[in-house]
Amino acid sequence: MQHFDVAVLGAGSGLMIMEGARDNGKTCAVIEEGAFGGTCLNRGCIPSKMLVYPADLIRDAQRGERVGITFDAPKVDWEKVSRRMWRQIDVNKELETEVEETPGVTVFRGRGSFVDKNTLDISMKDGSTQRITADSIVIATGSRTRIPDIAGLEEAGYLTSESFYGDKFPKKPYDSLLIIGGGSTALEMAHIFSAFGTRVTLAVRSETMMRGLDDDLAPFVKKQLEAVGVQVLYFAQAQSIKAENGLKTMTFKDKNTGHTYDITAQEIFLAPGIVPNSDALNLKAAGVETDANGYIITNEQLKTNVPGVYALGDINGKFPLRHKANYEAGVLNNILFGDRTRVAEYDSVPMAVFTHPQVASVGLGEKEARALYGDRVRVFHGNYSDIIAGISMGYSKRHEDDGFAKIITDDNKRLLGVHVVGPQAAMVVQPYAFLMNAGGMEQASHKGTWLPIERAMTIHPTFSELTAWALLYPLPPKV
Asked: CA 348, 354, 355 angle in degrees (round to 5)?
């Protein structure tokens, strides 16, 4: 039975722990049954952006007349768009080879589960079973799409992020698409396929999309999506589905009125939320505690209730974002291999929704801020049409697509939240994420340093990563 200093369950952000072990001369086991790179590389933010950018170009071209430039209707080379996306996903193969060739690292291609707090059984893909032990075990197995209980769903068939970026990827854009959900994945898909000419219906179970973000964002986005032809339904409770004649018809019940109605589309895309991949880990054998939804409970140092067992990324239920998982991996590397002083902070987590228009946010929404700070809250607001950069792009008070920035502070100018909807919203918000991580740096020696960038999360994937990540790669001194 092999023994390791560290064992990592999951080859997404967990690979950063492998790198930390490698750099500190520790042995490391990496257990992964699927593709290397995690959700982000294989079925999340990276392949989706290979589709979002072409969709953005189409929408920008359609707005060209605002500034005196008229284009013919864009021609979509779906084969080329798809080929570029698959090429990026295929990086997982290179990544796996690189990890396998790393000294001190052993890759186990299979599914790991606990025997006790230091022991894992691995069900290998070749049918065999291996048992290993480790001083520290890091759980980074991520999450998957939650599949709702809808009558006829399995018989009719459906898409999820897992199958869409797999064997069900379409050979051409759908004629019509019904998307279930109101979060980032649902909204990105609505933007992508509506731009490519698909008739899109977005069915949201609750009273709004983008729940958890500032209340002013969703109404604006809804109006803009509807302006480009997306049908948005709120309070839409899916009841049943049937497939016939190459189409799928889903019956909904309006939660408010009780009225039932049907929506027919060529395909159904499920994006109603996620569940953690904790159910196959046999956590009880190790005594690791989870919450009622199966998320592993961790403290500010990513420690579970069991000494030597840690969890990061989607599996701990705190913001399902790749840049948040990477941030946690950085904190945990310090705990495992550094001076053990770092802690994870979640009060200024930036995020973006790459829909039409783009949305970005960091910190508290106005309602949350007022609940905490009452009449100390101050709210500031500006539109894209208030600045020349926005005016040059054709934004005007006369048009309903005039995006905005909303900044929330307290009466001492302390930043509480920043929310932007419009072009490059993620880049506009990012400096505020850095600022909100500059607390406790009043010492003169810290003034003007890049420590706030080092301790902040940078929205992935955006151009803001260019300058943030450059700080990780110092050039050798010039001779």
From this structure: 125
Domains, the chain, with CATH or none: 2-42+88-145+275-337 (3.50.50.60), 160-267 (3.50.50.60), 357-470 (3.30.390.30)
Phi, psi dihedral angles at 419 (to 5 degrees): -140, 130
Which residues, in sequence order, are CB contacts of 343 under 8 Å at separation 6+?
300, 301, 331
| Cβ density class 354-382: b for 16+ within 10 Å, e for less | bbbbbbbbbbbbbebbbeebeeebbeeee
Q: Which residues of the chain have pLDDT under 50?
A: none
Confirm if 316 and 298 have CB atoms less than 8 A apart: yes
- Full-model pTM: 0.95
Average pLDDT score over the chain: 96
Per-residue model confidence (pLDDT) at position 455 = 86
Spatial neighbors of 42 by CB under 8 A, at least 6 apart, are 34, 35, 89, 92, 165
CA distances from 312 to 302, 340, 341, 358 (A): 6, 16, 17, 27
Burial class (CB in 10 A: 0-12, 13-18, 19+), 144: middle
